[in-house]
């Protein structure tokens, strides 16, 4: 079976200076490829399973969990590494305490998730136990991954678990997060985890056949989109943010997750989780769901984190020339183009770069602290030492430590 994609090539996985793994599969030449070998080469896979797949009217669907774990065990036999992102804590907790509707208040949601999470983990643990496969629970918040050193710690833990052949099972730490610090939902979390571990593919299992050109609940004539090459904002218009009865974020969130994955050069497939043997069939090359293929990799290594996670510690307001240099020429930020410094931050802090009208241009890590940038702003780099007594570098932000917020993307 042939998949028509514009350009596909695989490279060996590489590690950057900090040990980040790069996804192996990048789109690169003009030939079509056969799906079985393409999927076969996706060694490291992040598998996200939605509440809509894992829970039914009577709560957690253990049969489904067994069916999925059987397939994951088979994929591992074939040499794939699997990192599982499992939703379902709130939905299964709800049934446990007899709630008919999703809890509305944050403390109720958190308490329900606490009840459901142990139940959920127990079910996965039991299902993988048949194959003598160990699992490990990882609960994360956005705050955890926003700090670079904690992000790297999470990566080291995941790498060690994979090295030990243990299946990491990740969920958002619902019992401590409030709306402001949430990932949003597990679709976003799975895309971030994929960037973190340098996954070769994300499989997102949900309760529809894939992405339709409009919401199939309201449009009977909706058409399933089979392959998407590169991201386009048009895709977001296809999907609504309204989830099913137990989900969070809906299809809109999955398309946003695909956007994140594609920017990091990682393909993603949205597939029907309840379809019999869906994972095995996908990896055998059957055309199922919607496959999103990257056209180019915008971010590598540290930039994957920079583009997705850090909490800015301050702002730099730039003159139009500096904005142009960053946006159009991919240059580093020099002090001469900085008009204003906001906030108090140290060396290495993530800061937002804004144009004078307040538009967000990008995010970068600074080479100087706020008080120093205040002294050197508007000056030539040759004057840095005279102004602050030393010179770390000519640039306030080096281009290797900067990402544009809305980089140009090629799509559909
Ligand atoms: N364009 C679309 N294509 C497919 N499904 C869509 C679309 N727009 C909205 N949806 C809805 O999104 C739902 C899946 O999202 P969600 O309920 O969050 O699932 P999950 O629990 O798997 O994360 C589907 O039930 C579907 O009805
Ligand atoms: N962390 C929540 C799931 C949040 C979520 O994203 O749900 P879903 O849209 O079903 O993937 C839970 O375990 O219930």
Automatic annotation (TrEMBL):
According to UniProt, this protein's pathway is: Amino-acid biosynthesis; L-proline biosynthesis; L-glutamate 5-semialdehyde from L-glutamate: step 1/2
Any GO CC annotation of this UniProt entry? cytosol
The Gene Ontology biological process terms listed for this entry are: L-proline biosynthetic process
Where does this protein hold ATP?
48, 206-207, 248-254
**Entry-linked Gene3D superfamilies:** Acetylglutamate kinase-like (3.40.1160.10), PUA domain (2.30.130.10)
Keywords assigned by UniProt, alphabetized: Amino-acid biosynthesis, ATP-binding, Cytoplasm, Kinase, Nucleotide-binding, Proline biosynthesis, Transferase
- Sample GO molecular function, one term: glutamate 5-kinase activity
UniProt cross-references to CDD domains, sorted A to Z: AAK_G5K_ProB, PUA_G5K
User: What EC class is this?
Assistant: transferase
- The residues the entry assigns to the signal sequence are none
| Domain of life the protein comes from | Bacteria
Q: Where is the composition biased (Polar residues)?
A: 9-23
Domain PUA as annotated: residue spans: 314-397
Q: Where does substrate bind?
A: 87, 174, 186
**What EC number(s) does its UniProt record assign?**
2.7.2.11
Catalytic activity, reaction form:
L-glutamate + ATP = L-glutamyl 5-phosphate + ADP
- Which Pfam families does the annotation name? AA_kinase (PF00696), PUA (PF01472)
| Magnesium found in the keyword field | no
Identify the main location: cytoplasm
Protein location:
Cytoplasm
> Which residues lie within the region annotated Disordered?
8-27
Record-stated family: Belongs to the glutamate 5-kinase family.
What is its biological role?
A: Catalyzes the transfer of a phosphate group to glutamate to form L-glutamate 5-phosphate.
For this entry, the protein name equals: Glutamate 5-kinase
Q: Which organism is it from?
A: Desulfacinum hydrothermale DSM 13146
User: What gene is this protein translated from?
Assistant: proB
């Amino acid at each position: 079976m042939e998949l028509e994609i514009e350009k596909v090539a695989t490279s060996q996985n590489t590690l950057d200076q900090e040990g980040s793994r790069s996804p192996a599969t990048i789109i690169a030449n003009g030939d079509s490829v056969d799906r079985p070998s393409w999927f076969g080469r996706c060694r490291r896979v992040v598998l996200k399973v939605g509440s809509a797949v894992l829970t039914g009217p009577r709560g957690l669907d253990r049969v489904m969990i067994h069916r999925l774990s059987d397939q994951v065990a088979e994929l591992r036999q074939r040499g794939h590494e699997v990192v599982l992102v499992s939703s379902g804590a709130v939905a299964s907790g709800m049934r446990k305490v007899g709630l008919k509707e999703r809890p509305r208040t944050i403390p109720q949601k958190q308490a329900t998730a606490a009840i459901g999470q142990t139940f959920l983990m127990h079910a996965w643990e039991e299902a993988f136990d048949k194959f003598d496969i160990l699992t490990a629970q990882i609960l994360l918040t956005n705050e955890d991954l926003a700090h670079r050193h904690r992000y790297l710690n999470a990566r080291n833990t995941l790498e060690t678990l994979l090295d030990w052949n243990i299946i990491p099972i990740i969920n958002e730490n619902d019992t401590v997060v409030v709306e402001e610090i949430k990932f949003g939902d597990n679709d976003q979390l799975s895309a971030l985890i994929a960037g973190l571990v340098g996954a070769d593919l994300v499989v997102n299992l949900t309760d529809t056949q894939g992405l339709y050109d409009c919401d199939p609940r309201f449009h009977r004539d909706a058409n399933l989109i089979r392959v998407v090459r590169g991201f386009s904002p048009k895709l977001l218009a296809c999907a609504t943010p309204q989830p099913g009865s137990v989900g969070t974020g809906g299809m809109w969130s999955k398309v946003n997750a695909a956007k994140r994955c594609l920017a990091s050069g990682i393909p993603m497939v949205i597939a029907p989780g309840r379809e019999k043997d869906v994972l095995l069939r996908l990896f055998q090359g059957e055309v199922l769901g919607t496959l999103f293929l990257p056209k180019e990799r915008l971010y590598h290594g540290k930039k994957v984190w920079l583009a997705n996670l850090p909490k800015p510690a301050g702002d730099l307001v730039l003159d139009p020339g500096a904005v142009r240099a960053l946006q159009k020429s991919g240059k580093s930020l020099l002090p001469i183009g900085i008009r204003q410094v906001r906030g108090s931050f140290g060396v290495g802090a993530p800061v937002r770069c804004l144009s004078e009208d307040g538009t967000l241009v990008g995010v970068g890590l600074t080479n100087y602290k706020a008080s120093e940038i205040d002294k050197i702003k508007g000056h030539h780099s040759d004057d840095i030492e005279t102004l602050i007594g030393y010179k770390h570098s000519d640039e306030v932000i080096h281009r290797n430590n900067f990402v544009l917020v809305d980089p140009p993307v090629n799509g559909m």
